[in-house]
């Protein structure tokens, strides 16, 4: 049963990055279905201040409701803290498809130099420069590619 | 270990001062939106504001689970004497030099506070603190870069930053005003205490500032701006709260 719920949630897309599902983003941290028609879902925020969180809770709720679930509980918790290593391989590719440089895998320590040579999502060159670690949403940083002369955004690594 | 009533009171006091600091600095940071000295800084302060307010919400949720009112009520219906924020965070944004120095001092203190709290025996707080640690990394990184750049930015730049450090140091020490339950919190393993936090903060910020070329005032020579934790505030807090709650106050029961 949790597997079929997972398959449903794989069709719920991030409202700000429509190429990646919330499962691939790594924010679905708990799926339970104690009996048929019941679903208990735990989500965890990418950032505490993420304004899309309530929208995503609602999207999960709606998806399960339209698929016949009658007892739905969607809860956001910090029980398992999200970090960018939780994004799946498919998710990383989906970010790139959206024009966002995917975050590099990290070992828990993020330093500035990790951000400074982020590969350009358009031409793959590493001859890039970070302009600012803050971008249009909390999870993005802004960069410039000195090879193809495009400005681009990256999904920044978070530990 | 079983929590006594004093442990719970101490925990609430700790959560209130952290949540209030974050809510108020978040609102102050947001006042740079549209006014930053360059676009990137405008976005940086706005993004940090969003992080801070999100973090304050998570802490108000923990307080709610401990029996306090819901987050909106707590955030929007108290007056200045009921706020536990430090005086450092409530001051107007002033010039960019002051805002940057405040950001540097405050965020290093927060980073160490969350580091300490990621080990707390109060598990829900430990999980939140672990989350905040990753987010705030970008805040301290931002502050460090600019403190360093502005030190090397010429005579006026250095002079203004040094002056702001001198003027803000006592306010920053006010962050570490001891509460009424320090001994209980330490004994129970809830929090290592403000004195330890201050010591670790000094060990972090003094070498950094010195390496950028600044002079750091001596702790003994500066009067810490205490009072905020006990509801004693500057005249700047109440007008901020009035502005922050203006829409809420028009119709407190409104359904959004």
What letter string, H or E per element, gives the SSE order of chain B? HHHHHHHHHHH
What distance lies between the first and last C-alpha atoms of chain A, to the nearest angstrom? 32 Å
| Largest beta-sheet characterization of chain B | none
Total count of helical runs of at least 4 residues of chain B: 11
Tell me, rounded to a whole number, the average pLDDT of chain A.
Answer: 92
Note the overall shape of chain A: elongated
According to DSSP, the number of beta strands of chain A is 7
Could you estimate the helical fraction of the residues of chain B in percent? Answer: 55-70%
Q: Whole-Å distance between the termini of chain B?
A: 42 Å
The whole-angstrom Rg of chain B is 18 Å
Q: What is this structure's SSE topology?
A:
The complex is a heterodimer of chains A (159) and B (256).
Chain A: H1 2-9, H2 22-25, E1 28-32, E2 38-43, H3 53-66, E3 71-76, H4 89-97, E4 100-101, H5 112-116, E5 128-132, E6 140-145, E7 151-155
Parallel strand pairs in A: 2-3, 4-7
Antiparallel strand pairs in A: 1-2, 5-6, 6-7
Chain B: H1 5-30, H2 39-65, H3 71-76, H4 87-90, H5 96-117, H6 123-151, H7 155-173, H8 182-188, H9 194-212, H10 237-244, H11 246-250
């Amino acid at each position: 049963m949790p597997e079929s719920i997972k398959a449903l949630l794989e069709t719920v897309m991030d409202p700000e990055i429509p190429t990646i599902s919330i499962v691939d983003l790594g924010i679905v941290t708990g799926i339970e279905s104690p009996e048929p028609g019941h679903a208990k879902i735990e989500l965890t925020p990418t950032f505490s201040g993420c304004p899309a969180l309530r929208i995503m809770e609602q999207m999960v709720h709606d998806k399960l409701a339209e698929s016949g679930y009658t007892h739905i509980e969607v809860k956001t918790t910090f029980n398992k803290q999200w970090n960018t290593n939780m994004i799946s391989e498919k998710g990383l590719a989906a970010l790139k498809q959206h024009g966002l440089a995917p975050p590099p895998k990290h070992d828990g320590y993020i330093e500035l130099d990790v951000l400074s040579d982020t590969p350009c999502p358009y031409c793959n060159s590493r001859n890039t420069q970070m302009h600012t670690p803050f971008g249009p949403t909390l999870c993005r940083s802004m960069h410039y590619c000195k090879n193809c002369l495009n400005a681009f955004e990256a999904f920044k690594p978070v530990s | 270990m079983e929590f006594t009533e004093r442990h719970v009171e101490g925990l609430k006091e700790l959560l209130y001062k952290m949540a209030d600091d974050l809510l108020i600095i978040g609102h102050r940071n947001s006042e740079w939106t549209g006014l930053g000295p360059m676009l990137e800084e405008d976005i940086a302060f706005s993004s940090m504001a969003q992080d801070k307010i999100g973090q304050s919400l998570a802490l108000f949720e923990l307080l709610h689970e401990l029996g306090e009112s819901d987050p909106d009520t707590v955030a929007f219906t108290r007056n200045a004497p009921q706020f536990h924020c430090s005086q450092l965070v409530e001051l107007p944004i002033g010039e960019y030099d002051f805002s940057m120095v405040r950001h540097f001092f405050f965020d290093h203190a927060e980073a160490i506070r969350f580091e300490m709290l990621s080990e707390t025996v109060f598990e829900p707080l430990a999980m939140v603190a672990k989350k905040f640690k990753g987010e705030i990394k970008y805040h301290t990184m931002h502050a460090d870069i600019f403190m360093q750049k502005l030190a090397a930015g010429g005579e006026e730049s250095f002079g203004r930053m040094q002056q702001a450090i001198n003027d803000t140091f006592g306010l920053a020490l006010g962050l570490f005003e001891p509460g009424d339950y320090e001994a209980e919190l330490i004994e129970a393993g809830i929090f290592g205490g403000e004195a330890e936090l201050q010591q670790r903060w000094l060990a972090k910020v003094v070498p950094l500032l010195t390496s950028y070329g600044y002079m750091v005032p001596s702790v003994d020579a500066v009067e810490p701006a205490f009072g905020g934790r006990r509801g004693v505030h500057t005249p700047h807090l109440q007008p901020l709260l009035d502005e922050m709650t203006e829409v809420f106050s028009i119709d407190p029961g409104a359904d959004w």
